[in-house]
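[audit] Reproducing an earlier prediction to check determinism. Same input, same settings, fresh worker. If the tokens differ from the archived copy the diff job will pick it up downstream; this log only records the rerun itself.
[audit] input (264 residues):
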Amino acid sequence: MIAFIVFGTRGIRSTVEQGSFYCPQCDCESSFKLKKVTQFFTLYFIPLIPLGSKGRYVECQSCKNTYVERILEMRTTIDITDQPEEPKRRVSTSANLNPPSTEKTLGDQLAKPKTKSLAEKLAEQENELVNDKKRIEAEVDFLPEKQKVIKKLLIMMILADGKVEDSEIHAFHKVYRKMTGTTVADIYKEIEEVRRENKPPYQYLKKVAAYLNEQGKEEIIRASMMIAAADGDVDPTEISMVENFGKALELKHAQVKAIIQSVK
């Protein structure tokens, strides 16, 4: 009797922090979980030895989108204390009292800078919040990177069977818009670029795999299958490519198979 030893590696996710943050997708303050991905050596699919960290990501608990950790730097609230107005100075009209001298009034003005109104404070804080949002969005390039990867993978699915069908192009636009909220202006130019690059899926997926939760990974598999099934005939080469996507995303084979069967 021959005994087989099954071993490998797998990423295990754990929550290291939770709180609230500004979610760009929800466009409001939402709760989050900061998750760490640790690569483990597995024996018979059981994680035994930690091999190191693969990264950390922030998961919104409302929309389930994932972001790089720097998204937490964005300020989420406007904290303004409404200070009461200064009491108005009472000026006596009695002839026995001398009016305050010009020098004293000027000294008071220099000693006490003009207090900004609540509206001015709100406007300043709102501008700072907008600037913070723009700065974080400029630094946090994961969302654009995720969109690029999804675009590349969906185009690879179009090219998988060697034919570019109108039905697949139509399905691409529909699926890509649903997943990213954006459109592709010149799909045929993008197709030629992917054809020319001729890269394996892993090179695209490795950029974002550590920052995707299970839902995000399954969405990519499901979207890929929707492209494959768009022409009414799922080719074996398309199935094989979707399975390769699943391996690169470290999804279980049973998960990928279930998604394939649900779309077919």
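[audit] rerun output stored. Observation attached for the diff report: Residues 48 and 185 are 48 Å apart (CA to CA).
[audit] end
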